Amino acid sequence: MALGSNDLLPDEAVQFSKNANAVVNVAEAGLERYGHDQMMWTVGMRGMEAIGGRLHVTNYRLVFNAHPFNRMRGRFSVFLPVITQVRDTSRGIKRQVEISTGTHRFTFVAWGIPALMTAVERLRQPPMTPARVKWLAGTATADHAKIGEGLGPKPGHALSPDMSPMAFIGAVGLAELQELAGRLG
């Protein structure tokens, strides 16, 4: 679950890491119901599943690596330039943060939410220059294997409905970064 140099883009460095769970909608992820899921409402997770892993914050993106003991495995990235909001959505005993982009809301359950939020916000300020966003979009597209499992700008297959949910999330994130780079001229 650690990120090695082969997992990083050029000039990318891990700034902060912590154990975390990525919350996914069971139905949207195509997961079967399991024995105890009818009780998930008791912790505010009706119809949801927490995929355990490690969340890494780099100078370019958030990278979530699922550990191998989950029903869903893989990795996905959320690029810093497309993050529109970071907010603490903790309730009761559940500690969680919501990361919003223009197309998706990512929820991560973890201890130490204030430190995680501070790390993300610190790396988002000041915002990347338009030239740096374009460079990041081009670099991430060219080296798409580092972004997440199964990602690739294959014509007609980049957002294929038969790809894994983790790969789909990553493909949408890469497309969002490319669209931002295009808008910046």
Describe the 3D structure:
The protein has helices at residues 113-124, 130-142, 165-183; strands at residues 14-25, 48-58, 61-66, 75-79, 83-88, 96-101, 105-109. With 185 residues, it is of the alpha+beta class. Helix 2 runs antiparallel to helix 3. The chain is globular. The N and C termini lie far apart (36 Å).
The fold-level CATH name of the largest domain is PH-domain like
Number of strand elements: 7
Major β-sheet, in short? 7 strands, antiparallel
Instruction: Please state the CA-atom Rg, rounded to the nearest Å.
Output: 16 Å
Shape: globular
Relevant CATH superfamily of the largest domain: Pleckstrin-homology domain (PH domain)/Phosphotyrosine-binding domain (PTB)
State the name of the first-level CATH class of the largest domain.
Answer: Mainly Beta
Q: What's the CATH architecture name of the largest domain?
A: Roll
Q: What structural category do the secondary elements indicate?
A: alpha+beta
* Nearest-integer average pLDDT: 80
Please give the order of strands in the largest beta sheet.
4-3-2-1-7-6-5
User: What is the count of structural domains?
Assistant: 2
List the helices and strands and how they pair.
Layout: E1 14-25, E2 48-58, E3 61-66, E4 75-79, E5 83-88, E6 96-101, E7 105-109, H1 113-124, H2 130-142, H3 165-183
Antiparallel strand pairs: 1-2, 1-7, 2-3, 3-4, 5-6, 6-7
